[in-house]
Amino acid sequence: MRFSGAFALLVIGIAILMVGFATRSWELISLLLPITLYLTVASLLRPPPDIRVEGRRELEGDRVMEGDLMEVNLTLTNGGSKFRHLEVDDTLPRGTTLVKGSNRHPVGLPPGGSESFSYTIRFDRRGKTFMGPVEIKWRDPLFLFGERKFLDIKGTVTVMPYVHEIKRSALTPERLKMPVGSARSRLRGLGSEFHSISEYEPGDELKRVNWKASARAGELLINEHESERSGDVTIILDASGEDPTMAGRRAMDLGMEAAVSVSSAVLKSRHRVGLLIVGEYIDTVMPAYGRRQFYRIVDHLLSMTPGEERSIWNTVLALEGRFPFESTLVIISPLTGRGMVESVKMLSGRGHGIAIVSPSPLEIERGSLSHSKEMDMAYRILRSGRDNMVSELRRYCRVYDWNTDDPLEKHLVEVRRSGTGRPTN
């Protein structure tokens, strides 16, 4: 119970009484009569020591994409025996913006009655967002006494990084294995893509008989299909060398977006995907299939902590035993460390297919600085050095030097179409 207004009036009344007796001014003392009456009426109307109000919040889901909108519905129920006029304030989580409606409402609740209101928020920042609590305020009609209560109806929303639409053929495993998947291996076997027609042999399934071709040829012929197999992809995210600048944070955000986008595209092709994060700690997600694996990868990426400078390439070599045999490694790195070429050469020689997706920190930093002759000269020098390093790496693996001004999908397609490992422009 809060008595701020009543306490202020009480202090004023005592002061008037003391001054009135000191000056023997009965006119001044008579001012206590309306103050006393006001306090008496307010005390009769003051709220009970506990407000019996229950609340329920309904969300459209527990996972949204960064930048998406969500409608929040809040319902309050009066469990008491008296009519209540309340002020409701549903606390907005950090990293959100109110775009429609209001999260603050005055409500009137009869005994056993309910009232609902809704509003729409936009999630501006990836990560786990916590909704609530709901603050309930009650004041007497004379605004002297008040009661405040918090309803613990919290909720958690996972805000996922933006997922770039990548074609399934953009980053696929270089080596396929026996478990059935959706990647065509160009070998005859079980699958859905037509390959050829061959003669019927005892033991072949009758449902594979091509009756029209058999009627024309005068003998039984069967359809052969391309064998569809799956492969293993391990995504390695370089979160070492924490850079507190805006360009460094932007590069880390884009690296996370690339990891999520690649995992989504590869999992849709029914390949197994694993994750290795090299940051403050080494975090591993073992390879698996399906939508649950995608959410598991997203949760690990959102909880990662960038770490101190370390050689991601030495770490990858040391942890090679955690990768499935002959898996394809998709390394997402700004390519700022040492020993890259030697490490990639060793991994390639051990049977791993390698693809490097590199959000170019050079382009990110250039976009955040003003242009001048000196800056342009420094950019050309650094650009030349990076191009030489990328060209050396392309002798052993695919390298996507991602100019982050362009969508990731556009860059991947241009590199694949060029046949040279470089964008066409």
Descriptive terms for the model:
four-stranded antiparallel beta sheet, 425 residues, elongated, 3 domains, Immunoglobulin-like, Rossmann fold, six-stranded mixed beta sheet, 34% strand, single chain, alpha/beta
Q: What would you say this structure looks like, in words?
A:
The protein is an alpha/beta fold. It folds into 3 domains: 108 residues, Immunoglobulin-like, CATH 2.60.40; 54 residues, no CATH class; 187 residues, 3-Layer(aba) Sandwich (Rossmann fold). Strands 16-15-14-17-18-19 form a 6-stranded mixed beta sheet, with helices on both faces. A 4-stranded antiparallel beta sheet has the order 1-3-7-5, with no helix packed on it. A 4-stranded antiparallel beta sheet has the order 6-4-9-10, with no helix packed on it. Helix 7 runs parallel beside helix 8. It is elongated. The C terminus is likely disordered.
Structural class designation: alpha/beta
Q: What is the CA-CA span between the terminal residues?
A: 70 Å
Number of strands: 19
* Helical content class: 25-40%
